[in-house]
Design a protein that fits this description.
The protein has about 150 residues and is α+β, with helices and mostly antiparallel strands. The chain is about 25% helix and about 40% strand. The chain contains 2 helices and 9 strands, in the order H-E-E-E-H-E-E-E-E-E-E. The strands form 3 sheets. The protein has a 4-stranded antiparallel β-sheet with strand order 1-2-9-4, with no helix packed on it. The chain has a 3-stranded antiparallel β-sheet with strand order 3-8-7. Strands 5-6 form a two-stranded antiparallel sheet. A hairpin with a 2-residue loop joins strand 7 and strand 8. It is elongated and about 90 Å long.
């Protein structure tokens, strides 16, 4: 005899005087199986949605940014080609406008000859990226990462 007491899932909670029968266990197992199958389906959907979001975003080559009023804050992670320690990137490409104020917090770069500091300045319509000290004569490609600030 199935119990009159049930859990929130509808499973039997027998009293000491109850006499469980095989069908009670079959019914409980069916409920558990349906709940787990439903949960697995929902988890598969969540995982699929997360994978789609992760696979559709290339953080290594995208510009992540935040705009507050007329100021943009951007994370730049990009491989640049340098000629004598200098590379350029269009400010309009970076920000969507030509900034009236520009600031940057670049990370030092490791070159074969050692660590060099990076400076970034507004040069006309472009952001000028300069490798200082030992990088001033560097010609080649290297990754630059920096937090950029720009105001309209």
């Amino acid at each position: 005899m199935s119990s009159t007491n049930k859990t929130s899932l509808g499973l039997n909670m027998w009293e000491a005087s109850d006499k469980p029968v095989r069908q009670d266990f079959v019914n409980d197992n069916t409920i558990i199986d349906e709940k787990i199958t439903n949960l697995n389906s929902k988890l598969d959907n969540v995982n699929s949605n997360l994978n789609n979001k992760v696979n559709s975003t290339d953080i290594a080559s995208e510009y992540l940014g935040l705009t507050v009023k007329n100021t943009k804050l951007k994370l730049l992670i990009e491989n640049f080609n340098f000629n004598n320690g200098v590379a350029y990137k269009s400010a309009i490409t970076l920000f969507g406008w030509k900034p009236t104020y520009f600031g940057a917090l670049p990370q030092p770069v490791s070159l074969n000859s050692g660590i060099c500091f990076v400076s970034m300045t507004l040069d006309g319509d472009n952001v000028k990226i300069s490798l200082n000290d030992i990088g001033s004569t560097f010609t080649g490609s290297t990754w630059i990462s920096a937090v950029l600030f720009a105001t309209k």
